[in-house]
């Protein structure tokens, strides 16, 4: 049954709850201004909000000097901390795979008798749309083609330093090997590793909220390590980092989405690509996201996610049927094999010679995923009550990873086939945001499918802004999931303003730099959180395995 627990449903069945005197929302400031209400954590909301406002003001005030600063910051971080990001990501994958096969997989989120709140279709649609929607549309063609072309070009060395962008040792002059390596390098960035980051954080939030009875906020995961200190400044710092990381991770994805949508509009309808038009685009999409915010979780995010998944599935099926169908279907299995073959080398944190790939692509990606993880993790936790740990990890990691492989194979494989078999070089030579539209341009119904691509980006943009504001508001409200609506409206608007500031201050370079910067301290937070999660899971009651139960009955 539900009661006044910050909107969080009480457990069903057996759990090992944490005994604490802390009440959800006890440190909040509750205000009523006319019909509008506020219920905010006094320190987390104020400090994180002021930090982000200061960043926006300084970025807009010093636009000329911001871009080179951000570019230098991003370069220093990925070149010096690449080993840390890559090592941490490998740990997350190994922990997730271990949870699937160990008895801890029988722990059920929400108690031993808890039932799922959503059907499989609705659940998977929401977690997938929140996790990687914009990224798949933006990079589905561009990344496989980029790695293919750099692999095909081989290794170049200047003054004893590699200057090429080829993953590993490349595949100079060998299109088949270059395609296998390029697809493996792409899948490495979109399959097990990023989804493991999301899964562990989401699982920690879900267990400590729905089973342990703590607020649905980042600090709760760390109770086994810090005890009652999480209600003080130890917890405040963790939650502030989570809010800032989420805002900038969200702004990075919104920046990619706006860039591709604007490029598509320019390609199809000659809409000028100026700062003004991009600001107008972000403002319009943010306004649509506000409508979704007001509609609520079921009426807004869930419905939009299902619509978007349907549109994405139709576009995927279209590309498979109209494109090189046999090559795509066979390539799906070939690419999985290539991925598994190259995975040990691609995930090696040390002794890398392909520094442009491992630092410029991989280290940035892991920092981006990690800065994005509080948002995606908390959103997945919100909608995953009633699932077992084994079911949760399997679905959150393996199913989306499989869909990512199919998507990259269909879109990237079609673009590579156009270049190798048809001599079509437009995709090969196009800028990153334009590669999808260049690929669709020589296929039937090009104008319709290109418009569908733009709509996909826009709707993914809306669902990301909506669900992101939900998550940020939950953290800034001290873990309350039933905080007043004006707060979600504030954070949704705020994310749009940050995206605009980053775009004006330095474009995608600024967004990438902030994602990497916030991802660095949060990687350490996630490593500590993983250890704490394991301690929490070990103490949870779980139903006996079916075969053990059957054996016990037979013995009696």
From TrEMBL:
<keyword id="KW-1003">Cell membrane</keyword>
<dbReference type="GO" id="GO:0022857">
    <property type="term" value="F:transmembrane transporter activity"/>
</dbReference>
<feature type="transmembrane region" description="Helical">
    <location>
        <begin position="276"/>
        <end position="297"/>
    </location>
</feature>
<keyword id="KW-0813">Transport</keyword>
<keyword id="KW-0812">Transmembrane</keyword>
<feature type="transmembrane region" description="Helical">
    <location>
        <begin position="44"/>
        <end position="63"/>
    </location>
</feature>
<comment type="similarity">
    <text>Belongs to the BCCT transporter (TC 2.A.15) family.</text>
</comment>
<dbReference type="Pfam" id="PF02028">
    <property type="entry name" value="BCCT"/>
</dbReference>
<feature type="transmembrane region" description="Helical">
    <location>
        <begin position="83"/>
        <end position="106"/>
    </location>
</feature>
<feature type="transmembrane region" description="Helical">
    <location>
        <begin position="309"/>
        <end position="333"/>
    </location>
</feature>
<keyword id="KW-1133">Transmembrane helix</keyword>
<feature type="transmembrane region" description="Helical">
    <location>
        <begin position="187"/>
        <end position="210"/>
    </location>
</feature>
<feature type="transmembrane region" description="Helical">
    <location>
        <begin position="230"/>
        <end position="256"/>
    </location>
</feature>
<feature type="transmembrane region" description="Helical">
    <location>
        <begin position="393"/>
        <end position="416"/>
    </location>
</feature>
<feature type="transmembrane region" description="Helical">
    <location>
        <begin position="363"/>
        <end position="381"/>
    </location>
</feature>
<dbReference type="InterPro" id="IPR000060">
    <property type="entry name" value="BCCT_transptr"/>
</dbReference>
<feature type="transmembrane region" description="Helical">
    <location>
        <begin position="118"/>
        <end position="141"/>
    </location>
</feature>
<protein>
    <submittedName>
        <fullName>Choline/carnitine/betaine transporter</fullName>
    </submittedName>
</protein>
<feature type="transmembrane region" description="Helical">
    <location>
        <begin position="519"/>
        <end position="538"/>
    </location>
</feature>
<feature type="transmembrane region" description="Helical">
    <location>
        <begin position="489"/>
        <end position="513"/>
    </location>
</feature>
<dbReference type="GO" id="GO:0005886">
    <property type="term" value="C:plasma membrane"/>
</dbReference>
<keyword id="KW-0472">Membrane</keyword>
<feature type="transmembrane region" description="Helical">
    <location>
        <begin position="436"/>
        <end position="462"/>
    </location>
</feature>
